[in-house]
Design brief:
Length: 199
Amino acid sequence: MALGTAAATASYELRFDSGRICLDLLATTHPEERLDAVEPLRAWISGSGLVPAGTSLVAADTSWLVGFRELRGHIGQLVRGEPSRDSRPFGIALAGVNELARVAPPAPRAAWGDGGSLVRALDGAPSCAALLAAVARDAVELITDPVARASIRQCEGDNCPIVYLDTSRGRRRRWCSSETCGNRERVARHRRRAALARA
């Protein structure tokens, strides 16, 4: 597959609808591994808004993949499990996220865009450590905010591991996406009713 096609495909398949950057990173495992090469990682970094559009990510290499996957594992442990001082896996994940969050995230600056308006740019090329710090800080904010933490939901769709922030009115959102998991559930319910009617 050509490099441009791979990037376009990765961008199409990546999801950014969980409500937080750290949860969007978790979504890169479903329905299969999305961060399986450097190009999809670059697409995720750009698509997530970690960097302004057009930011060069030529420095990204396989070591970046390792870092983002490791952070993803830590975040998964922290948001899917109950906080516990006695849980060794939770403690390891918490220490990992805290360590990554210590680094300064990419420094933004205002720059003149092509249309004559001010646009967001970065003050230098982003490093892997700085980008990991931005995601880790988002995770720290999420798990330390009682209201946000109480809004974390696991999709109720069959075999869907997506975790999202439920900001719906009444906090009754059931699926990561009404268009995908929600539609599947409605179709399955319809088929069950039709089968019962035939029986």
